[in-house]
């Protein structure tokens, strides 16, 4: 048997001090669909997401992310990863199927950066009910029902005050491929865009020494099909009196973006489109120097650098 | 060692009776860039393609496609596939590196449908020269230099007068995954959308019993980032007095399309955007029945079904 | 004092046998806002319309349009037009302010084609209430609240079984300028695109000898800002299981279109963007011959010609 | 006879110290078409402009604008304006037809702000030659031939160090309607968006007390049909290594913008789409206060306020 493999980003488990505000933001402004509510936890997904949920939201004392869930390629990969991690002395917690509704047997462990990742294989794919179900057989919900209406989850971006190099190495052992990175003047990589899929990144990790707690989450991203959808999102956010950064286009990843914060939890969402796919098996990671950093961050448009909204992150447990 | 694997669609080797017309069409109207010309063969790629070429064009007696090239995941996969194919009694021809400029050691063989496929691993990635090179480090050429200006090659669509079921099975052995298919009233699959990547299809195969020669190529597709690019393409084609079908949106694959024929060779190009990606490792192929066929072909817009332009295909060798 | 002048298209008074269906279509699918309901009549406008309503809908025995209202440039123009029309022997009915809610003193009369036009000057411009009001001072409602969400009314298109030439002449006396027209092989103009504004047309009139009643309305059109909005509209209509024609681009007017029918009344709506503006004071009307007709109707895309959906019109009183 | 009237913005006469750079910028990057070159002056227009030229470019010692030309509604209006202006003691210079190629008899005079305006009626409309001519009968050139490829001229924006109130009053006497304006805390209007057409503005005038010379030109604007065209323009400018501000959306006028400077002359171009049209004959100008100024300038996106690129203007003679 080969190495266990991760197939894709699964979901983010968000805790918010203001559940009502967060639900209004994610359901009415962003326009995610609610699969179900169980024990006060709301399970949401975009109209084009194919699994049970890509975001769970529950009430808690502070805005933070409990963990980020990833789906493995095979059922036995969950056990396979458990063994590998424990061989390396990493504590691994196991969870029975259904601990998270819609998610099968799972393990959780911490990255060197302190972020908790979950791995699972089995997942429920509940059909949408009549009235919300798409007329297309290959699509979960009707598109364009409400708000921004992105198609699917895209990636997560995490920050760490620890030495990010250790986390990049760890992630590469889990099967993440470095696709683009920023190298500082000391020769250290301080931001990396990594993926297990053919996206440029499913996961970005940035080193930020001055964070108030070691492990933070910068944003989750949902993907829309067209650039015009991002401009329409800007109108929608303004009409809801919600501030944001963008639109702008990243040099790194080439994607068009808008950054907006959930007013309930402080968790940031990147509305995202464009970019490129990587099909080459021998992809050479693209290096950006500190001199090229501004260009890599903002190819054009409203910049993400050094803006207050951009510098706030929420804690990751 | 595991099974050999195919990473991605590489290129299509096109022969045209009217080289000048075909070059004008692909370079000025579609807007592909020319990597090089060697021995009268023109090697073209889109501005976002990462390899030596994705289309070669040479002069010949009739418009046809010599073969479709695919890149393997590893260097040893080329030899691996050779062994597997020969074990199954399939004749395999081997080619030295450089037989096709920019392409390493390669093998060629015929599908049961009669279409020739090439497999190779090594590929040159010549940088674009100053003036044509993008200011972005992760992009080959400047975008939007001329014509439609699509980003990258997307897929090929082939037709066969043979029993397509045999070819689907053969392709699945090569590692192609069935993503969506059309089942006729006898229970046979007569059109299949298959991929080795996370695209819905790198390759579509349709059974057309009445073709004039057994193996035909319906189209090659180039991908643009935005729906608006496809509408702009329609304007550009009209201004060049070139007829086309579309715009329309497929139900199958959910992509926005335009079909246009190279006036030199009769080879059809699909200009394409939208659609969805498949990250689920246990994707259940989406079945469309004959009753659902029209909807699957044309979710909305100018239909691809039963139009003359659509029914013409060129021979595949 | 100079000639009385018409400033702009005002509103269409629609009667529907199925009020519930029509309201669902115009409010939820098209996404018009409801200004008010008075005596069972619903007054609707788009988020960017600046007057009381641009469409009124009431219940009646059959789907038809009672009249089309136009706003004059000056208050005294209403009386001015009354005099001119009566001098020509045209019966004119006068209505007190408020006969139609939001509309001041008005006159109504019939075109030679049999269509009833209303002229008025005074109009109420009720502000949108909090929650629906735009954050922009120059916009009535929040955009993108629901459905297709077009910006504003654009034009009406009427059909007549009478000699259209008489109606073109009559309309020119009212101040409509011919902008583009279709001339048949006998030398008669059988379709004319006319405007009092700088749009290519506020009003199109086509001669259709075989209509079941002499005066018909082909469609009302609402305008969106971007081509992508029309493609999104196509998705929305499909998700509501509503059939339509398009997208396509007219040669005449250069506009991108989608034609869809209100399932309640049978009244057609054209969703519309693009096109050009005419600022030249000495514009030469653009002539299209029968040979050029198909191209003029459909520059590209799903054609409006000879389709069943397109040939149905509702009666105009 | 009524008052003389202005129909539309005609053209801007630009002088550049680096003709080659300016021509490359306007012809290859922006993508204007060249009607003709006479006596070293290049006459340019966009593919959808209907007159001889909308921009003339000639070589001179410094980057500046000689005058802004406006077309009147009637031939006799040129003489009519001459009389009115001279009655008010304004010096008026008369020019024979053909003084500017393609332009008939003209007069020139200075606004109180010091900017020179030209008024003319007659204009040549040379057809585009085969190869550049559109296949559409209602369009001058093929669209999308090169560069950004906007449709038509839209407006000019001028700055003055004098009391702008005097100029607003003067312009209102010429027939310009105030559509939106910015009022400062002293109650003075310090920026006004005015039009003779149904656009929100053909002309914006801002009071800037600290200008190096009294009469400056901030920008000329060309209009594109779709928001996506502006995003594509941003890519094109970056690939040409040309800096710009935007994309952003104005609150005032609601238009999507990009500001870019001609590297030859320092003259700024606004690439522009969206916005609204004013058909109401009794439009109440929209007032913006200093508190609302930032929102009015930048509804969202990369801001035009206080940026260096934005503060540079070229002299108007």
UniProtKB/TrEMBL annotation, chains A, B, C, D:
Ranges for domain VOC: 8-122, 152-274
Keywords: Aromatic hydrocarbons catabolism, Dioxygenase, Metal-binding, Oxidoreductase, Repeat
Pfam family, one: Diox-like_N
Protein family (similarity comment): Belongs to the extradiol ring-cleavage dioxygenase family.
Subunit text: Homotetramer.
Protein name (Swiss-Prot/TrEMBL): VOC family protein
Species per Swiss-Prot/TrEMBL record: Planococcus shixiaomingii
Biological classification of the source: Bacteria, Bacillati, Bacillota, Bacilli, Bacillales
């Amino acid at each position: 048997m080969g190495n266990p493999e991760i197939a894709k980003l699964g979901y983010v488990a968000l805790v918010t001090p203001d559940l009502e505000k967060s639900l209004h933001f994610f359901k009415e402004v962003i326009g995610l669909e609610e699969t179900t509510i169980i024990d006060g936890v709301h399970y949401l997904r975009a109209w084009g997401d194919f699994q049970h949920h890509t975001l769970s939201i529950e009430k808690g004392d502070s805005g933070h992310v409990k963990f980020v869930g990833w789906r493995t390629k095979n059922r036995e990969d969950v056990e396979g990863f458990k063994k590998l991690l424990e061989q390396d002395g990493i504590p691994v917690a196991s969870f029975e199927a259904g601990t998270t509704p819609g998610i099968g047997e799972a393990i959780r462990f911490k990255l060197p950066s302190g972020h908790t990742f979950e791995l699972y294989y089995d997942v429920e794919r509940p059909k949408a009910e009549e009235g919300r179900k798409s007329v297309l057989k290959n699509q979960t919900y009707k598109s364009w029902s409400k708000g921004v209406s992105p198609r699917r989850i895209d990636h997560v971006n995490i920050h760490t005050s620890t030495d990010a190099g250790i986390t990049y190495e760890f992630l590469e052992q889990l099967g993440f491929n470095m696709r683009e990175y920023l190298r500082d003047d000391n020769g250290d990589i301080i931001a990396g865009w990594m993926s297990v899929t053919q996206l440029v990144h499913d996961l970005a990790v940035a080193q930020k020494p001055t964070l108030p707690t070691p492990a933070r989450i910068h944003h989750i991203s949902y993907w829309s099909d067209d650039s015009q959808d991002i401009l329409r999102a800007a109108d929608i956010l303004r009409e809801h009196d919600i501030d944001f950064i963008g639109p702008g286009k990243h040099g790194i990843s080439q994607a068009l973006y808008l950054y907006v914060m959930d007013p309930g939890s402080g968790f940031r969402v990147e509305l995202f489109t464009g970019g490129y796919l990587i099909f080459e098996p021998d992809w050479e990671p693209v290096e950006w120097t500190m001199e090229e950093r501004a260009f890599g961050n903002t190819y054009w448009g409203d910049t993400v650098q050094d803006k207050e909204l951009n510098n706030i992150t929420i804690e990751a447990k």
